[in-house]
Automatic annotation (TrEMBL):
Family according to the record: Belongs to the binding-protein-dependent transport system permease family.
Chief place where the protein resides: membrane
Name this polypeptide is given: Raffinose/stachyose/melibiose transport system permease protein
Residue span(s) of domain ABC transmembrane type-1: 80-271
Species for this entry: Diaminobutyricimonas aerilata
Coiled-coil boundaries: none
Subcellular location: Cell membrane
Taxonomic lineage: Bacteria, Bacillati, Actinomycetota, Actinomycetes, Micrococcales
Record field: transmembrane: 20-41, 84-105, 117-136, 148-167, 193-217, 250-271
Amino acid sequence: MSTAASRPAPSAFSGRAADLLVAAFVLLIVVLQLVPFYVAITTSLKAKTDLSPQWSLPTTNLVWSNFVQAVTDGGILRAMGNSVLVAGVSTLFVCLLGAIAAYPLARRRSRFNSGILAVNVGLMMVPALSILVPLYSMLADMRALNTYWGVILVMIATNLPLAIFLYSSFMRSLPVSVEEAARIDGANLFQTLAYVVIPMLKPVTATVGIITGVGVWNEYALSGYILSTPETQTIAPAIASFFSIQSSNLPAATAASLIAVVPVVVAYLFLQKYFVRGLVGAEKG
């Protein structure tokens, strides 16, 4: 008798138990992810004098004025407007330049292009703070400190390597026959790129857009130095400044953090379908 024949077949009960175990693990991860939001919500709705544990609900009425104070005293709406401008323009250029740069790297596989991709991956591993001193000196010489265009240039440069990597990986999963058919029909390279390739990049564009937009929105390490004036500060440095000023008023500082999260969550809810499809396509490439 062979070993395979003597091995008992897996029962339906063991398969169901495995599914329940996986479901319990996923539920645990979800709960752990939601705990900080629960603590932030309960803290933001408490009075300044409420010294109850952060886990507990407010002992008095809900204090919605914490959110009003975050907007009026912290300048959160102005900082959100700055972040919308910086994140929006940066994401637009990162998607556009990333797609254009990735197309020849994905379609023309040569040693030179492989080397370019390897260098691009290496750039993704460089910590942002390691280039702070020379970057700050260069921006000072360019008179780009405390300007929107200065920080946008930095955000584009630091996020472009990941965009090129994702676009090139996704393009490799696309069939070349579609582009060849367009060439046979008389389309030139730019028409093929504009009318055939780019429409197929919606999933990975959503992925790059979310990753870049959220990254720029939450970026603090570089923008905290580049944008030091309250008029130009983006949301992360503005919250840090407000938090340092309102350290004795933790509910108002927490309310400011919750306000900053809302646009990112809304954007992700609208684009989550394309976000997953873009990651799967990039992984196949």
